[in-house]
Design goal:
Helices cover 47% and strands 13% of the residues. By secondary structure, the protein is α/β, with parallel strands linked by helices. An 8-stranded mixed β-sheet has the order 13-11-12-7-6-5-14-15, with helices on both faces. A 4-stranded antiparallel β-sheet has the order 1-2-4-3. Strand 18 and strand 19 form a beta hairpin. This is Arginine--tRNA ligase.
Amino acid sequence: MVRRALEEAIHTALKELGLDLRLKVARAPKDKPGDYGVPLFALAKELRKPPQAIAEELKARLDLPPFVEEAIPVGGYLNFRIRTEDLLKEALRPKGPFPKREGLVLVEHTSVNPNKELHVGHLRNIALGDSLARILAYAGREVLVLNYIDDTGRQAAETLFALRHYGLTWDGKEKYDHFAGRAYVRLHQDPEYESLQGGIEEVLHALERGELREDVNRILLAQMATMKALNAHYDLLVWESDIVRAGLLGQALEILERSPHVFRPAEGKYAGALVMDASPFIPGLEDPYFVLVRSGGAATYYAKDIAFQFWKMGLLQGLPFRPYENPYYPALRTSAPEGEPYTPAAKETVNVIDVRQSHPQALVRAALALAGRPDLAEGAFHLAYETVLLEGKQMSGRKGLSVSVDEVLEEAERRALKVIEEKNPGHPAKEEAAKMVALGAIRFAMVKTEPKKQIDFRYAEALSFEGDTGPYVQYAHARAHSILRKAGAWGEPDFAQATPYERELALALLDFEEAVLEAAEEKTPHVLAQYLLDLSASWNAYYNAKEDGRPATPVLTAPQGLRELRLGLVRSLQETLKTGLSLLGIPAPEVM
């Protein structure tokens, strides 16, 4: 890869200057000479030289890769021009997944309470987690995707209680999770809610004993139909009741109690409770004590999260698994009392949870360090994301103000079908294309923005074939596929006929692998999404280029040799867009 090779050469040269630094190489601005460049202003203080002088000295010391035609010091930058033939050959090189690396990465996402239908707030979690898992796998990591089922939580208990309390019977006319969700909302709107707590507690205890698993599973299976419609993938289901039965919580507490930072105060407000002092690992806390087990013996959710994390990273053993019977994911396994023991022993974990859970996630990392495994604490990553608005409105499940994912998918498909009928009335498979476009619009809207920024999902914007949308990228792919479909077979390219237009498109293609690796390293899919938008824009600029009012870059009618070069670039672009979209869980229609 061009950029990484340049970065390695610069690193070697800087070490000769006494600086063990790795600088990032980026595309050079279009009004500056060269294709790539590196800024050197940050080195001026350490080397006590002006940036331009540093650029000149660095150029003299660099052992340039053979594909570099020239290094150019310019305005405190050192820029690089790539040899045109090498650039084009690299752009035409078939791309594939990176070589496998050791060390399992466990990605946990979705983890929706099994009490009602998925709502629009869950979309971002699923899209982020599923996309990141795909990106990590392509980048060479061994990836395991986990979905956590909180079947002993209050939300599940309230839904099951409501179904019984109101004597509700499912008639099969709506999805079962929607039916169950209406019971949950009805309970929270019931004026007698407070007087019903005893009955809810009874259901809660039954869930903890594992007695109502099939009732919960019925809701889960309905939810999984939605997860499948979103094109999300899972390897493992872990039920909280199985964690309790396997005794993982007790094992985790035993490990923690060996630390001097975990103890039972004899007096004060924490008297009799098991607390963790997180101050060595989370500085600046007003109250550094966190309760793991209350004085009455009940474990907090902090303790449960820690026990689960310990199992993920191999500190605890003993959770059994078996195949999970379902119509959506044939290879899916689930925790179950009668299964075979399995421990993932992940070197890294990614927990996709909204930003409001940042504090508990920090405690999980602190607990790993307290257990004597700071290396695992370093590998525990929280992919925190902000909330999702729908057409400017905040969602609330308990108040019944949420909009379900199923409704969003149906509405997006309806609108996409209308757009396709207007733009391409002769489309051979309108409904199928509408499903692809709708899925692309929804998933792309959830991942194109940096996770820590709030999203306001609006149908009209997300479904547009122009702008920073999934359909825009899908349409760029379909346009490229249309050219290739008409081309037939072709021969060898003539690199000598390349124009600046081919050079510019090739440079855009070169950044795909860099974008994948950066998205994997930073653990955020928005890097890849933004790259696909940039690549689509470069392709549209190439496709629509004009000189003297005439097309400047005809592909099928170009002279022999140049035609082959252009077709090769179009094929590379089509394959890159298709691969990039697939890494975001988005289909690439051939006709739109």
